[in-house]
Structure formats: structure tokens, C-alpha cells
Amino acid sequence: QKEVEQNSGPLSVPEGAIASLNCTYSDRVSQSFFWYRQYSGKSPELIMSIYSNGDKEDGRFTAQLNKASQYVSLLIRDSQPSDSATYLCAVKGGGSQGNLIFGKGTKLSVKP
Amino acid sequence: GAGVSQTPSNKVTEKGKYVELRCDPISGHTALYWYRQSLGQGPEFLIYFQGTGAADDSGLPNDRFFAVRPEGSVSTLKIQRTERGDSAVYLCASSLKGRNRGSGANVLTFGAGSRLTVL
């Protein structure tokens, strides 16, 4: 069974610090990787997508992918209280498979 | 429409009843997905449509669950003989493409969800 693993947290960081969120996946042929943010009571919204090994930066967010280690991470620099949410890692398999497999999410709390 | 629309937003029903949940995807999106999310869990894949056909229904938990998308746009998730364990938020998402095509792989946009409570 294809799995996506995340530490459920909560992860607590002070305002202005770097938050580091990690995810591992079991399907070695996975091609596409996503980070979604979900505020309490709301639906997931896409923050970052990454497809190639290495880093991808977008504003305060950096996604990192290491396919050999089957590991993907999200760094949030200069964390703000508004970043407090659950962060979901999602992985899409290779080939014609269309669905995303989600992890359980890591709850992040940024303290003022 | 501008976003993915789901109705009803809330549904309370009694055990054993039949329920339909509707999803209206973003106009032009060919792929449509249904997920289920329980409290404290990530979204759990149920079924994925590419156009009118179910491309992958491997996530449907049992034969009480069924989904259709007859005209390739609006989809209805149908749950027969509901059980208390069916209580969850049912999320619908759509995307432009359903196939993995490398770096151009599709991105899912989610609706607000339908919260189902089975008493």
C-alpha cells in the first residue's frame, strides 16, 4: 500500500523562526509532490509543488525533494502566527495514476 | 464557476438513510476527485474521474458508496444505508489534467467540503 508519512505534531515555533516540516513516502516511482495548507474547518489549499530533486523557493516557502531518500520537506522562513495551520504532504504516483495520496498532516503553531 | 462548489455544506442524517453529495468543478477542469477527511486525518482518496468515466475507484470503501459524473462536469457521490462511521467531511477537487505528465502534472483545487453527520 502506498503511504505518505508525516509527524502529526504539534510543531510549535516562535514568530520569526524557521519551521521545518517533513514527509516520507513509500512509492519509489512517485513523480509529483505537493504541500497543502489547511486552516481549521477549511479545505486544503496548495502552497507548493515540486517535481525534481533539489530545492524550490517561493517567497518564505522552500520545498526540498530527495527522491533517493523518498523524502520531501517544507521550510517556512520568518514564521508568522498566520502560518498556524495543518500542513499536508501529498504525493502523486507515476504512470497514469491520477490521484494524490495525502499524509495525515503536521499541525504547526507559531507563537507570537 | 470560479471555484469548486459543493452542496450541501452540512448534512445530518440517520443511520440507514441514503445521501447524495454534489460537486460542481471549476469550468473546463476534466479531472474530478472525491476525498473523505475525518477529524485529525489527512484526506483519504475515494474516486477519481477523467471526463465521464471513473478512472480509479479503488478508494471507495465498500459497495454502499457510488459516484457518477454523467456529463463530465457535475459529480454526485451517493452513499446508501449510511453508517455512523461514514461521518466525515467529503471533499471534492478538480484539476485541468488527470494524468501524470512529468513536471506539468495537474494541481488539485478543493471545494469547501460537505460535512456529513450520521446519527
Which characteristics define this entry?
heterodimer, A: 112 residues, mainly beta, 5-stranded antiparallel sheet, globular, B: 119 residues, 7-stranded mixed sheet, 11 strands, 0% helix, 46% strand
Can you characterise this structure?
The complex is a heterodimer of chains A (112) and B (119). Helix content of chain A is 0%, strand content 54%. Chain A is mostly beta strands. In chain A, strands 2, 4, 5, 9, 10 and 11 form a six-stranded mixed β-sheet that branches. Chain A has a five-stranded antiparallel β-sheet with strand order 1-3-8-7-6, with no helix packed on it. Chain A is globular. Chain B is 0% helix and 46% strand. Chain B has strands at 5-7, 10-13, 19-24, 31-37, 44-50, 53-56, 65-68, 75-79, 88-95, 109-110, 114-118. In chain B, strand 5 and strand 6 (53-56) form a beta hairpin. At the A-B interface, strand 5 and strand 10 of A face strand 4, strand 5 and strand 10 of B.
Task: Indicate the topology.
The complex is a heterodimer of chains A (112) and B (119).
Chain A: E1 4-6, E2 11-14, E3 19-25, E4 32-38, E5 45-50, E6 54-58, E7 61-66, E8 71-76, E9 85-92, E10 100-102, E11 106-111
Chain B: E1 5-7, E2 10-13, E3 19-24, E4 31-37, E5 44-50, E6 53-56, E7 65-68, E8 75-79, E9 88-95, E10 109-110, E11 114-118
Parallel strand pairs in B: 2-11
Antiparallel strand pairs in B: 1-3, 3-8, 4-5, 4-9, 5-6, 7-8, 9-10, 9-11
- What fraction of the residues of chain A are assigned to beta strands by DSSP? over 45%
H/E topology pattern of chain B: EEEEEEEEEEE
- Would you count the extended β strands of chain A for me? 11
Average pLDDT reading of chain B: 90
Termini of chain B, distance in Å? Answer: 33 Å
Structural classification of chain A: mainly beta
- Which structural class should the secondary elements of chain B be placed in? mainly beta
Residues in helix, % of chain A:
under 10%
Strand count, sense and barrel status of the largest sheet of chain B are: 7 strands, mixed
